[in-house]
Every structure is written in C-alpha cells, then in structure tokens.
Amino acid sequence: MAWVTQTLSSSLGRKVVMSLTGLFLSTFLIVHMAGNLQLFKDDGGRAFNEYTYFMTHNPLIITVSYLLYTSILVHALMALILTRHNQASRPVRYAYSHPEANSLWSSRNMGILGTVLLLFIIIHMRTFWYEMHFGSVPMAEYDGKQYKDLYAVVKVAFAEWWYVLLYVISMVAIGFHLAHGFQSGFQTMGIRHPKYTPIIETIGTYFFAIIIPVAFAAMPVYVFLQVHGII
Predict the structure, then answer these.
(1) CA angle at residue 31 from 25 to 36, to 5 degrees?
(2) Which of 38, 165, 175, 190 has CB 3.0 to 4.6 Å from 48, enough for a Cys bridge?
(3) Are 49 and 150 in contact, with CB atoms under 8 Å apart?
(4) What is d(CA 225, CA 174) in angstroms, rounded to the nearest whole number?
(5) Under a CB-based contact definition with an 8 Å cutoff, are residues 153 and 47 in contact?
(6) Has residue 156 been placed in a domain?
C-alpha cells in the first residue's frame, strides 16, 4: 500500500486521483440524467418509480453507488488539499496579475464552483437519497407490485420555487465546472493528441457543459410548472 501513500502525498498524484474521480462522476451524470428523464413521461410517475426501484435494488448498482459516494468525497478532498497547497506555495499574489488574459473564468474559479456543487449535493441527497432510505415515503402499486413513490417526493420538492432556483443555479455551476474539468482531467493524465484533443474538448464543451446541465435544469422547471397547473 506504499504506492497509495506516495501517490496521495505528491501534487501530481493528487491531481491524477482528482481527475479519475472527476471523470467517473461525469460518467455517472449520464446515467443519472437518463434516469431522471423519466420525469417527463406523462404516466403519473410510474417510469421514474420503476427506475428508482431498479437503482436501489440491483446489487451491481448498489456496489457502484458506494464507489460514487467515495468518489465525491475523495474528489472534494483532493481539490481542497491542492488548493491549500497552491496557496501555501504562493502566499503573496503577484503585483501585476491578469489571469483573465490567458485563462477561462471557469478554470480560475473551480474552487468556488466546486463548493457550490458540494453544498448542492448535500442538500440534494438530504431531499431525495435520505428521504428514499430513511423517510416516510408513500407507496405506489403497479401491476400488483409495491414501489416507493419517490415521484411524490420529487413533486413536493420541486413545487417550491426556491428549490427549483437553487437547482437551476447549481446546474449553471456544474456546466462551468465541467467546461474546464472534463478536458483538464484528460490533460492531467497526459492524454493530449492533435487528433483526439479536439474531440475531447468538443464533448466537454457541448455535451457535459451544455446538454447535461440544461437537461437536468429542465426537470425541476417542468415539474414546478406541472404541479402548479401552468402546463
């Protein structure tokens, strides 16, 4: 296990760990988005409840979920350690510094974006994950089989304008975070090539930084409008 200690004690090793966990979390977003798209089905929440049942009863998914929770914590911890290390290495800022001239806003504010997302994840998991496992969730029955009606929990949460606003703002933050983070993850691991880098940058910019956040943000807005009879 010495290699683990050596990896986590070096700046490069921490960056690699943060990149790997970040890319894994990016992959998870695709699965999570696909499942949450069931909210758009006009079936009273059946497809969404069946999806959540599968996600919480499949042994493989349950195992991966623990890897997901670990990745979130490790990613946040590595980011914090690297930020503190960078600050300690340069305690006094340069007198003439214009980082905006040669770097993106998202790359200069990854710490702020990451903090916003971590707070959102905590609130989000308290609202849904905790309620799913430990709360008093009503039951729904489809074809004689009982399901926890998490769709009802979703409707209650997204009926609140402030929660919808928080969700949308957080999706803007994740868009900026992924705009830099997805490409940076590959770069940290030395994956840069004239043939493949433009593809990675395109996927990071358009799919992860735009399509995924917009899809996620559309869900609470849709449910809010539906619950209040606007659509």
Answers:
(1) 115
(2) 38
(3) yes
(4) 23
(5) no
(6) yes
CA pair distance 95, 61, nearest whole angstrom? 51
Q: Is 224 helix (H, G, I), strand (E, B) or coil?
A: helix
The size of the chain, in residues, is 231
> Could you give the CA distance from residue 50 to residue 146 in angstroms, rounded to a whole number?
10
What tens digit of pLDDT does each residue of 154-191 get?
A: 999 999 999 999 999 999 999 988 888 888 888 887 77
Distances (CA, A) of 60 to 21, 66, 153: 19, 10, 25
Between the alpha carbon of residue 159 and those of residues 48, 155, 186, 227, the distances in Å are 17, 6, 39, 6
**Pairing between β-strand 139-142 and β-strand 145-148 as defined by DSSP bridges:** antiparallel
101 in any annotated domain: no
On average, the pLDDT of the chain sits at 85
Q: Report residue 92 as tokens.
A: 């006094």
Domain count, the chain: 1
Tell me if 11 sits within 8 A of 85, measured CB to CB.
Answer: yes
For residue 92, tell me if it sits in a domain: no
What pTM does this model have? 0.83
What are 43's two structure tokens?
Answer: 């079936």
Q: Which domain holds residue 159?
A: 11-83+106-227
Q: Does some domain include residue 192?
A: yes
pLDDT at 231: 83
